[in-house]
């Protein structure tokens, strides 16, 4: 598509009309306004012209022999190369203008003859402005997607490559401890312990980051996954915490959903870990997992009796590294829910939270039921 800002022209417009006089009038008017004008006397020529070089806008007569304006419009809209060019229909007052059809076939506006010059110009300017904004949006979206991919790649490479040197650090600390512990004074032993703990925390952070960046990289071939088996696996993984805190955990019987097994385990495990973790001191965690059918999806809820989340923090907690003030006393890096969000969205579902401070939190998410939609994503 042309960019006319350089040569001082305001836009490249194709005029399509089978009456040469009509073309002449419009063309004179628009050239006077510094638009670049092309003309076509038939639908076939119009299509050829647009395919050769898409203009910024088309003014299209409806009533033409051979091929009428609606058909021309339909054909242009069916071709990805010419689809985006906005089309304004022109019709004589005595023609039966089918406005509904004009929009249905993909027109953006219509003008009826005889027209007022000022009105035509306003409508053209309006469409060109929309067109320009749309192009900007598309470019910006592409740019955003690109930089997101780059960031993900960066997170992956960095976390992956950090693992090795970190393992050396923690490995040698262990070695020193093992070999020399009897010869070291308490202060050095304390320092070694601290290096060891910090190393472990860093290891976890790296693992979580890797998981986060991997979610977007895996291809999404979703399969029917038994929710009950996912829960069983998760409970096995968090058994230690459940025993230690004497958690009461209840659950509806979980359905089969369309998913990626590893990711669904990560999802549920993150949510259950949060539900167990964020309780006030001395409170026994009570966790309940509910499911309800909503059309072709299942809605899951992970409920807890924990410290809750202040309303003004609700928005941010799904962003990576975001933790609330009240979470400062609990371990964690703020990657869990960001990973959950990515997983759920990869599965074509939604995730959100309901919470009352000091009462408890429910994180809801939806997943496609198995057998309904094998490929929920395009
Ligand atoms: N069930 C919950 N109850 C109260 N606050 C919660 C709950 N789940 C999440 N939050 C809040 O949302 C923040 C983000 O959660 P997220 O799981 O991403 O991070 P984290 O648990 O702090 O760390 P990580 O999961 O990476 O170990 C938490 O730090 C906490 O402030
Ligand atoms: Mg968490």
Annotate the secondary structure layout.
Blueprint: E1 12-16, H1 20-32, E2 36-40, H2 43-52, E3 57-61, H3 69-78, E4 87-92, H4 99-104, E5 109-113, H5 117-180, H6 186-217, E6 223-226, H7 227-237, H8 239-245, E7 248-251, E8 256-259, H9 261-277, E9 286-294, E10 297-304, H10 336-346, E11 351-356, E12 360-368
Parallel strand pairs: 1-2, 1-3, 3-4, 4-5, 7-9
Antiparallel strand pairs: 6-8, 9-10, 10-12, 11-12
The structure holds adenosine-5'-triphosphate and magnesium ion.
Mind explaining what this structure looks like?
There is one protein chain. With 378 residues, the protein is α/β, with parallel strands linked by helices. It has helices at residues 20-32, 43-52, 69-78, 99-104, 117-180, 186-217, 227-237, 239-245, 261-277, 336-346; strands at residues 12-16, 36-40, 57-61, 87-92, 109-113, 223-226, 248-251, 256-259, 286-294, 297-304, 351-356, 360-368. It has 3 domains: 12-115, Response regulator (Rossmann fold, 3-Layer(aba) Sandwich); 149-217; 223-368, Histidine kinase-like ATPase, C-terminal domain (Heat Shock Protein 90). The protein has 10 helices and 12 strands. Strand 9 (286-294) and strand 10 (297-304) form a beta hairpin. It is elongated, with a radius of gyration of 31 Å. It binds adenosine-5'-triphosphate and magnesium ion. Residues 208, 270, 274-275, 278, 304, 306-309, 317, 323-324, 327, 332-338, 361 line the site of adenosine-5'-triphosphate. Magnesium ion (MG) binds at residues 270, 273-274, 332, 336.
Radius of gyration: 31 Å
The stretches of 5 or more residues where confidence is low (pLDDT under 50) are: 1-7
The averaged pLDDT comes out at: 91
CATH homologous superfamily placement of the largest domain: Histidine kinase-like ATPase, C-terminal domain
Ligands, deduplicated:
adenosine-5'-triphosphate, magnesium ion
**How much strand content do the residues show?**
15-25%
Number of helices: 10
CATH architecture of the largest domain: 2-Layer Sandwich
CATH topology of the largest domain: Heat Shock Protein 90
């Amino acid at each position: 598509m042309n960019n006319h800002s350089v040569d001082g022209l305001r836009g490249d417009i194709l005029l399509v009309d089978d009456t040469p006089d009509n073309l002449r009038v419009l063309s004179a008017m628009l050239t006077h306004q510094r638009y670049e004008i092309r003309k076509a006397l038939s639908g076939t020529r119009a299509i050829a012209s647009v395919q050769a070089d898409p203009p910024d806008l088309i003014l299209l007569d409806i009533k033409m022999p051979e091929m009428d304006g609606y058909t021309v419009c339909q054909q242009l809209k069916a071709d990805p190369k010419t689809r985006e060019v906005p089309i304004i229909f022109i019709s004589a007052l005595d023609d039966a203008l089918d406005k509904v059809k004009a929009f249905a076939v993909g027109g953006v506006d219509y003008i009826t003859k005889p027209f007022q010059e000022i009105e035509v110009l306003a409508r053209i300017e309006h469409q060109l402005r929309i067109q320009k904004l749309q192009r900007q949006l598309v470019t910006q979206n592409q740019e955003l997607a690109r930089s997101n991919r780059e960031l993900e790649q960066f997170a992956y490479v960095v976390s992956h490559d950090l693992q090795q040197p970190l393992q050396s650090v923690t490995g040698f600390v262990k070695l020193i401890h093992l070999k020399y512990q009897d010869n070291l004074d308490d202060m050095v032993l304390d320092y070694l312990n601290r290096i060891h703990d910090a190393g472990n925390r860093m290891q976890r952070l790296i693992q979580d980051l890797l998981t986060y960046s991997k979610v977007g990289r895996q291809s999404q071939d979703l399969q029917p996954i038994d929710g009950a088996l996912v829960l069983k696996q998760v409970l096995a993984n968090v058994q230690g915490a459940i025993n230690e805190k004497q958690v009461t955990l209840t659950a509806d019987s979980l359905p089969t959903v369309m998913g990626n097994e590893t990711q669904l385990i990560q999802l549920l495990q993150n949510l259950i870990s949060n539900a167990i973790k964020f309780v006030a001191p001395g409170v026994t965690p009570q966790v309940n997992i509910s499911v309800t059918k909503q059309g072709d999806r299942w809605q899951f809820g992970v409920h807890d009796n924990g410290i809750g989340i202040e309303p003004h923090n609700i928005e941010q907690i799904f962003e990576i590294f975001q933790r609330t003030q009240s979470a400062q006393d609990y371990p964690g890096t703020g990657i869990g829910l960001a990973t959950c969000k990515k997983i759920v969205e990869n599965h074509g579902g939604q995730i959100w939270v309901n919470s009352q401070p000091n009462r408890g939190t429910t994180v809801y998410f939806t997943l496609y039921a198995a057998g309904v939609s094998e490929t929920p994503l395009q």
